Amino acid sequence: MTELETSPRFFAVIPAAGVGKRMGSEIPKQYLPLLGKTVIEHTITTLLAEPLLDRIIIAVSAEDTHWQSLDVLKDARIEIVDGGAERSDSVLNGLKHLSSIASNNDWVLVHDVARPCIAASDIQRLITALSSHPVGGILAVPMSDTVKQVAGKIIAATVDRSQLWHAQTPQMFRHQLLLDSVTAGVEQGLSITDEASAIELAGYQPEVVQAISANIKITRPEDLALAEHYLKKEG
Questions:
Q1: How many domains does the structure of the chain reveal?
Q2: Other CB atoms closer than 10 Å to residue 145's CB: what's the count?
Q3: pLDDT per residue of the chain (235 residues) written in tens, 0 to 9
Q4: 88 within domain boundaries
Q5: In a domain, 2, yes or no
Q6: Model confidence, pTM
Q7: CA dihedral defined by 100, 10, 93, 191, rounded to 10 degrees?
């Protein structure tokens, strides 16, 4: 049976080497407490609940020792690799690690460690919607706010929001395509803000799958309270 005829497997890569400077905390934001657990524990627990995920690769800072005390990260499906200076470097390290076990057309879901409110139903919706797609795509939410283009502090224009979406994660792409696209972007010094941007720079068009707005990214201290609200509501 050829690779194309074989059912693709699913893997996850979690960049978790950031220090979260905007949180103003002494520890990285993924280890901050959230409803009796750490942020990363909420995130990983939801991913582990998805039976299709064969392996979860977590890229952490080489100096990070916090993860070693978390039981959830000792699950047999989890492997830890060294992260990099930038998010894209951590993702690339995770993808390279997968090269020894993943086939070209296997799927990789890249998810922000600081998105602990990801719903299991959104992960399943993403997989179902894109499983036969040649490239892949992302979870996203249509923009509802009025958007202003600003120069300095002066409004230059009101932007048509009808075609604007808030990108989320997971973002799901074929392993080899994503590896090649992120590698090229990093080597060229391009701005890779998410995996979709690397795929776009390589000339491909990812698809969007509508998600729930609760899948927020914890960036600032006030985001923890909002994440707590959503997690309590989900629970």
A1: 1
A2: 8
A3: 344 457 899 999 999 998 766 665 678 999 999 999 999 999 999 999 999 999 999 999 999 999 999 999 999 999 999 999 999 999 999 999 999 999 999 999 999 999 999 999 999 999 999 999 999 999 999 999 999 999 999 999 999 998 999 999 999 999 999 999 999 999 998 889 999 999 999 999 999 999 999 999 999 999 999 999 999 987 6
A4: yes
A5: no
A6: 0.93
A7: 140
